[in-house]
Amino acid sequence: MTYNRKTPYNDLPDLPPVFDTKTHTAIVSHALKAARSLAELKGLCDTMPQEALMNLLVNTIVLQESRDSSAIENIVTTQDELYQAATEKEISNPAAKEVFSYRKALYAGLDYMNKKNKLITTNLMVHVGQNIKQNKAGIRKQTGTAIKNAVTGDIVYTPPCCEDVIRKKLASLEVFINDEEFCPLDPIIKLALMHYQFETIHPFADGNGRTGRIINTLYLVQQNLLPQPVLYLSSYIIDHKQDYYRLLREVTEKNNWHDWIMFMSTAIEQTAKFTMNKIREILELKRKMEPQVYKAIGSFNRKTELFELMFSMPYLKIDLLVRNDIAHRETASIYLKELVKAKILKAKKIGRTMYYTNYKLMELLSKR
């Protein structure tokens, strides 16, 4: 049957596709480069105690990935808005709330996968999607779903319909992902194939792109290529957004697997290097700043806890220190002002709230 972008793609073939031998050799070589970069990133993470790694990354690399993955879907929040929101008990900024939902979904997916024998299943995908959207929506049931050009309104792709077809295709995808004997491909190549397949099945009414990008990272953890879901992959997709969507379409319309897999391998290689450099820069800043902080607030008996908080929460405020049992209000105010006086933090009043920013860390996080 001839592909028609205006009718549901119920004839979407199961994975894996057939490769030309010469093309396959070039793809494998490229994937090996990505694997080496991931191995370096994993090695760096493995040198850090797990608790220290998580404290450092949860509000830095992972939150930045959450922000950029949301931005791909035109959910945009500034760095300042994001880290101001991180200090609140309840987040009111809608875009920031979506970003934090993404981060929650990432760790919910990781926890779910670890409890289910490291398997990536349809139920896991639904669980991640529900956490992203903060609802109980499951597999798409409605007809008429189509991907349209945002400017012209023209249909560029119509995903499979309806629930029974979608579930059948997801079941096949499960086998491809989890059964090593069924398809013993290089995991980097496999990731590119499964990411295309998930995005093309488009199983949910909303949140497909973000769910698909979380599944990518969970797969790298499943394959023991990363110890934690720390790859900053969405930054590369944002910088190459047109190519990303064009190549997705070219697989569907022209069977151009070669360029798509090469694109994804490059994305993983480049972002592994980027993530590794970002972690090293944060660790170096932390190393340089530690004696400065201790000198400025040396008499404070909770200085270690305050210093660690500065690197997991670049925006601080008095209430945050109180909530983390680091200091009472008056003591918190005194030592935050001491850090401002030492030019380690900057005071910034927004509305009625005084924030104290670890501005050097913010500069690092903002740098591409």
Instruction: Indicate the low-confidence ranges by residue numbers.
Output: none
| Biggest beta-sheet profile | 3 strands, antiparallel
Strand elements, count: 5
Sequence of secondary-structure elements: HHHHHHEEHHHHHHHEHHEEH
Number of domains: 2
Shape: elongated
CATH topology annotation of the largest domain: Fic-like fold
Structure at a glance:
With 368 residues, this protein is mainly α. It has helices spanning 21-46, 50-57, 61-72, 79-86, 94-115, 122-133, 163-178, 187-201, 208-222, 233-239, 241-254, 257-296, 303-312, 318-323, 329-341, 359-366; strands at 147-148, 155-157, 315-316, 346-350, 353-357.
Q: Can you give a write-up of this model?
A:
The chain has helices at 21-46, 50-57, 61-72, 79-86, 94-115, 122-133, 163-178, 187-201, 208-222, 233-239, 241-254, 257-296, 303-312, 318-323, 329-341, 359-366; strands spanning 147-148, 155-157, 315-316, 346-350, 353-357. The chain has 368 residues and is mostly helical. It folds into 2 domains: 21-275, Fido-like domain (Fic-like fold, Orthogonal Bundle), CATH 1.10.3290.10; 297-366, Winged helix-like DNA-binding domain superfamily/Winged helix DNA-binding domain (Arc Repressor Mutant, subunit A), CATH 1.10.10.10. It has a 3-stranded antiparallel β-sheet. A two-stranded antiparallel sheet has the order 1-2. α4 packs across α5 (94-115).
Labels describing this entry:
368 residues; Arc Repressor Mutant, subunit A; mainly alpha; 3-stranded antiparallel sheet; two-stranded antiparallel sheet; 16 helices
